[in-house]
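Reading group handout, session on sequence-to-structure problems. Before we discuss, look at one worked example. The prompt was deliberately terse, the way you'd type it at a terminal:

> structure Crp/Fnr family transcriptional regulator

The input record follows.
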Amino acid sequence: MADKLSAQHNPKQNHLLAVLPEDVLMRLAPQLELVPMRLGDVIYEYAEQLQHVYFPTTAIVSLHYVMENGASAEIAGVGNEGIVGISLFMGGNTTPSLATVYTGGFGYRLKARHLMEEFNRTGPLMRLLLRYTQALMTQMSQTAVCNRHHSVEQQLCRWLLLTLDKLPSNELTMTQELIASMLGVRREGITEAAGNLQRAALISYRRGHITVLDRSGLESRTCECYDVVKKEFYRLLSDTGTAKQFPN
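And the output record:
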């Protein structure tokens, strides 16, 4: 079974791993462990000491803050374009956020010490991860601005587009309740916004399944935040080849 899974998956399905020089990837490859990342899995908890980093391939992980009253909101999503666990190489080693899987799939897990051994060579991996971190910080800051200043419908369009950028298809398995939790808004707001998009024939929503019917239409209804994030990923990562899912 393990051999069959390995044949279906490859570390280069993650865009950061795919653009590493072959000698760097060869050093890391024996330590990369293919792991299932199931919907709802907690990758790490608040203030947890990081033992691993994750390179998603077909899964998507939500980074979000949880308030004392249990309310939460997503600050960023990480899919096959990135890495989960940036606090490790940024020097903090723990994180104030929670990381959970919201689109199930697979990814590669790497022990913290193996990542840091390669990072501390101050070579291609270090430069790539620092660029990615800057792009991720742009996504985080833009999410905060968007949640404060833009309508629920605009936020939903932004979230759908950023999620689609991390998937091979135009379909998502996601309940309105979960999306509301991601965006930190009331479920009724998501129901109304999704209804508007469905009546405009931009999406089809049925029993927790969302199909995007008109991507360009979504792009016309979203705020500038999606474009800001997309352009920053492209600016920072275009010369590495990892920005191909963010066309300029």
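Points for discussion. First: The first strand starts at residue 33 and ends at 37. Second: Strands lie at 33-37, 42-44, 52-56, 60-66, 72-78, 98-103, 105-111, 171-173, 203-206, 209-212.
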